[in-house]
Amino acid sequence: MSLRARAWEQTHTHHHRAFPADRLAAERSESVSVCLPARNEAATIGPIIAALVPLLDAGVIDQLVVVDDSEDGTGAIAAAAGAEVYDQAALVPELGPVLGKGDAMWRALTVLDGEVICFLDADSEDFGDHFARGLLGPLLVDGTGSSGARTEFVKGFYRRPFKVGSLTLPDGGGRVTELTARPLLELFYPELAGIRQPLAGEIAARRSLLESLPFATGYGVDIALLIDAYAEIGLESLAQVDLDVRQNAHQALRDLRPMASAVLAAVHTRLQRDGRYAGTSSEATVERPPLLSHRRAAA
Known about the structure:
Layout lengths: L2 H9 L1 E3 L5 H7 L4 E7 L3 H16 L5 E6 L5 H8 L2 E4 L13 H8 L7 E4 L10 H11 L12 E7 L1 E4 L2 E6 L2 H14 L14 E4 H4 L4 E2 L4 H13 L4 E8 L11 H17 L13 E2 L2 H8 L1
Parallel strand pairs: 1-11, 2-3, 2-5, 3-4, 6-11
Antiparallel strand pairs: 5-9, 6-9, 7-8, 10-12
């Protein structure tokens, strides 16, 4: 890890315990939306929404949204638990079918009202409200890092236990992160080597930034947003927050190949865009343009 990456990691890494609900409610000055893109998450969405609704009541957040593309009743469960629910396909319908998680996030921006937006995954087990509080903290409390730069984009990180039947290993989850995403960043974007979970779906950012960035439509969205935010605002305006542990279902190794390919394609697209790589890729990628430019084109 480079000296700059190591210095950033030491000064821009926080723990969720630094941001209790009463502190955020008392000190925030911006409106906040929390959004969960969901697809067939009936097993987990109810407890997640139940954990987040008290943040509405406490004045920590203003809007709690699920954008849904499910056949298992996820949307109905989320609505009953207290979330606003939108059908993904009904958002920006002129673009046709929703092309994955990144596309759902991009379309969700059209119904999110907050000046600060937090995206959370909908498949987390043993979820707690600290996921939202931790991510929002560096943006809502003071809002500047040690360098004086305004915090614009926050990434979560955690330990990911690996469950195999009745056996739980303390680490071992996040195989695509460790074998694909982090080596790519270390090689091509060494200043981002201090980001511990570049593929984490838990992020928070200022609306003004998110609307200025393109969104990869599939699994590549998380690393793409990180790289593009870094290019747009610089390292000192990024932060990361320790969320302790995240548990979710694990896929078989062979099923991780499409995710790894999407991550590679997203990085490849950015290297090509910046004139750093002239090769071709067999992985077709679709990206949504920055929402600001899309609105201008549609006007």
